[in-house]
UniProtKB/TrEMBL annotation:
UniProt keyword annotations, A-Z: Cell membrane, Membrane, Transmembrane, Transmembrane helix, Transport
UniProt cross-references to InterPro entries, sorted A to Z: BP-dependent_transpt_permease (IPR050366), MetI-like (IPR000515), MetI-like_sf (IPR035906), OppC_N (IPR025966)
Name recorded for this polypeptide: Peptide/nickel transport system permease protein
Gene3D superfamilies tied to this protein: MetI-like
GO cellular component assignments: plasma membrane
Every ABC transmembrane type-1 domain range: 111-311
Species the sequence originates in: Natronocella acetinitrilica
Length: 323
């Protein structure tokens, strides 16, 4: 018996050593195979990683904190890119604006706000849309009709106009003293409420397909409550399209935040996002200080385009019909 047992243990250990590890399985997957064959996606992922790392480590990378007035040098205002100030001797990679604020540092800190608003708005819209879509698709009847009619009405308006409306209503409710302090929260809620519809429609359609399958019928037969069926059984099977929409929606949320800030209803100049920097730079576009507008605009373009390309690739690779 001991010989048989030891032989079985040896065979089990040999099988475990021959089993490929997690990294090897990832490298051999269809997703990584598709990733390697698309150089545009590789470049987009590298640019996205650089932008995210720059925003995350901005306090350690940026030469100055553009949010701290004590670190600004007004005498260095309008210093040209790739030059040294004649007054303080400071070197500015991308120049300075009218307040002596280093444009490179402002882009790094502005990217943090844009990404924070974008991620939070997408998460808010994803949670709201997924919850309403699950409930509407599973429950059916008048709740489904009510939620979908609200979604249809909201789809008749452009999302940016809906975000402007929601932003104005929320700011009208809040006291004026809280407008700047709550600017980020108001932006997140406004963009999230304007984008939840696409998540709800996708989840509702997937839920209506899944709820007629045998495993859902079996869960009903054994008496599981609806909330357990929704969370434990239905939700994991409808998340794939939601994650793809969320990746693409991140780029749209970043652009929406930049649009609102550019229109003057987003982040205040004391806490600039990329949209605020572009709005400030527009005032100097025809006066010779072209770098104040150009570099924040390029940063926003690279960030939004890279994330959008990754989202398009992820949508194609996760859709078996497009393989």
């Amino acid at each position: 018996m001991s010989t048989v047992g030891s032989r079985e243990e040896q065979e089990l250990r040999a099988a475990e050593t021959q089993r490929p590890g997690l990294l090897r399985r990832m490298l051999a997957s269809d997703v990584f195979y598709s990733y390697r064959r698309q150089p545009v996606v590789i470049v987009a992922s590298l640019l996205t990683l650089i932008m995210f790392a720059g925003a995350l480590f901005a306090p350690w990378i940026a030469p100055q904190n553009p949010f701290n007035p004590a670190e600004l040098e007004l005498i260095d205002a309008f210093t040209e890119p790739f030059s040294t100030s004649d007054f303080t001797g400071n070197y500015y990679l991308l120049g300075t604006d009218s307040q002596g604020r280093d444009v490179f540092s402002a882009i790094l800190y502005g990217s943090r706000i844009s990404l924070l608003v974008g991620f939070s708005a997408v998460l808010f819209a994803l949670l709201m849309g997924t919850g309403l879509g699950l409930y509407a698709g599973y429950r059916g009847g008048w709740p489904d009709a009510l939620i979908m009619r609200i979604a249809d009405v909201q789809l008749t308006f452009p999302s940016i106009l809906m975000a402007l409306l929601i932003f104005g209503v929320i700011r009208g409710i809040l006291p004026r003293s809280m407008h700047q302090e709550a600017a980020i929260i108001v932006l997140i809620v406004a963009i999230g409420l304007s984008d939840w519809v696409q998540y709800a429609r996708a989840v509702r359609g997937a839920t209506m397909v899944e709820k007629g399958k045998e495993y859902i019928q079996a869960a009903r037969v054994i008496g599981l409550p609806p909330r357990i069926i929704l969370i434990r059984h239905l939700l994991p099977n409808v998340l794939r399209p939601v994650l793809v929409i969320g990746t693409i929606g991140l780029a749209l949320a970043i652009i929406a935040e930049a649009t609102l800030s550019f229109l003057g209803v987003g982040m205040p100049p004391t806490q600039p996002s990329l949209g605020t920097l572009i709005r400030v730079g527009q005032d100097y576009m025809f006066s010779g200080e072209w770098w104040i507008l150009l570099f924040p605009g390029l940063a926003l373009l690279i960030l939004a385009l890279s994330v959008n390309l990754l989202g398009d690739w992820l949508r194609d690779v996760l859709n078996p019909k497009l393989r």
